[in-house]
Write a structure and sequence with these properties.
mainly beta, two-stranded antiparallel sheet, five-stranded antiparallel β-sheet, globular
């Protein structure tokens, strides 16, 4: 399995599609900004751990954000899809264009037959 970390009882691994809810403070107002994309890398260990999330924005432009795991402005981290990948760093997705840049096989969930 590729690298993973646990955030508030949610296990996040490389290749997962996640939604990061981050609180943004502008002047005296607060709002929650959601960034959804694929986790392409998890770096370091312990308290210095960080993860990189990549999404394809308007006009096919790739946008990446690097979040420290212990960032206090992260309010929630949702895993939308579990990815089945064989590498710990998915930097090869940067060269891909269009649908191929977000195509990752979904991890099969085994259900016990009754």
């Amino acid at each position: 399995m590729a690298q993973y970390f646990t955030y508030q009882d949610t296990e996040v691994a490389t290749g997962d599609t996640v939604r990061v809810h981050q609180e943004i403070i502008e002047g005296d107002k607060k709002r929650v900004q959601i960034f959804e994309g694929i986790v392409i890398a998890i770096k370091n260990r312990g308290t210095g751990k960080s993860f990189t999330v990549r999404k394809i924005a308007t006009n096919g432009i790739g946008v990446e954000k690097i979040y420290p795991v212990n960032l206090p402005t992260i309010k929630q981290l949702e895993v939308k899809r579990k990815g089945n990948v064989r590498r710990s760093k998915l930097y090869f997705l940067r060269e891909r264009i269009g649908k191929a840049a977000t195509r990752i096989k979904e991890k099969a969930t085994h259900t016990k037959a009754a």
